[in-house]
Each structure stands twice: as C-alpha cells, then as structure tokens.
Fold this protein.
Amino acid sequence: MNIRFFCLTRKDLKLIFSGGSGIIQPVLLGLILVFVFSLSTPIGEEVSAQAAASIFWLATSFALILVFNTLYSMEEINQARTGLLLSPMPLQLVWLSKAFSGLILLLLAQLFFFPATIVFLGQESVAGWWNLLGVIILVDWGLVAVGSLLGAVSQGHAARDSLLSVVIFPLLIPLLLAGIRMGAHLLGDAGDENLSAWAGIAFSFGAVFTGAAIILFPFVYNEY
C-alpha cells in the first residue's frame, strides 16, 4: 500500500498516544457508561444478552465520536490541514488513514469495554471468540467509514462535538441494530434470528459508506 498512507497513519497515532488524552477519554467514557448501566439493574437480576450487547455498542458509539473529533481537530491547529490539501496525494488517502487510525483506537477501547461488559453486566459465556472478533471488526468497519467522513464535516464548527453527535447517530441505527442482534446471539441469546441477514446489513452498510466517502471526502475536506 502507498507509503504516504502509512506515514499519515503513523503521524495520527503518534500524536494521539503522545498526548494521551486522545485515547484515555474515550475509554473512560465507555467504562463509565457500562458501570452506570450496571447500577440500574436490581440486585440479583440478570442483564439480558441483548441489553449487554446494546450497552457495549452504545459505549463504542460515544467513543467513536471522541476518537474522530480528536483525529480531525489535530489538523485544525496551526492550519495543518492546508499542508495536507497542498500535498501531492489524493485526499482519499487522508480519509483512509483517519479511518484506519480510528479503527485501531476503537479496537483498543473495546479491549476495555468488552471485559467490563462481561463483568459488570453478568454475562457468563461467549459462543465463539473468533465469531465475536469477526462481528466486532465487521461493525467497526461501518462505524469508522461513517466517522471518518462526518468527522471532516464537523470540523470548523464551534459546536463540532454536538454536530457530529446529532448527525452520526441517526445514520448508525441500522448498523448498531445489526451489531446488537449478532452480539446478543454470541452472548447466549437463544433467539432464532437469521444472523446471516444481520451480517449482510452490516457489510452493506460499511460498503455503501466506504464508497460514499471515497467520492465525497475530497469535496468535504476542501471546505473551510
């Protein structure tokens, strides 16, 4: 793959981890959400697999917003985005590098969210760890495809955190629903749902927004 892609990704991750807050804030927010929802369950009552999966993906969605706000706000400092716009490379590489960096950061956050979901929400078993990893990566692909596109849209606005939240959540409903149903099944929900259909929805969502981002991102990123 193009060496410029790796340079951009390395630059983003280096800035994120050197500052520290870029990954600490999403992790802490997600863990707080899981813990607060665990307190809402009466003592001795079990949390259903579907509820646990819903809380996991809710924590992931809020982490997604913080991750991409941070990734794109770095270019707003000292007009660094101008350097990317003037560089001799297709702007789609910027979107791809942000998406890949966001995917790495999101998976890292989920390494904390999932054990917290199991422990605090009382989930006892997982039906296939490789299947679970496949579901998480499939849904995360759609999440970062949307997040990397809309993260660019929200920059330059004073209330960019609120703007990204308002725009992104309605778009994510089909993807999150698919993630919740597949996750609930893997956490022990004995429902007879057609999981291949939900996987198809998640795959189609990621493919559609990947294609849309490749076409629209140069126009979005050029706007100030």
User: Anything to note?
Assistant: The chain has one domain: 3-222. The chain is about 80% helix and 0% strand. The mean pLDDT is 84.
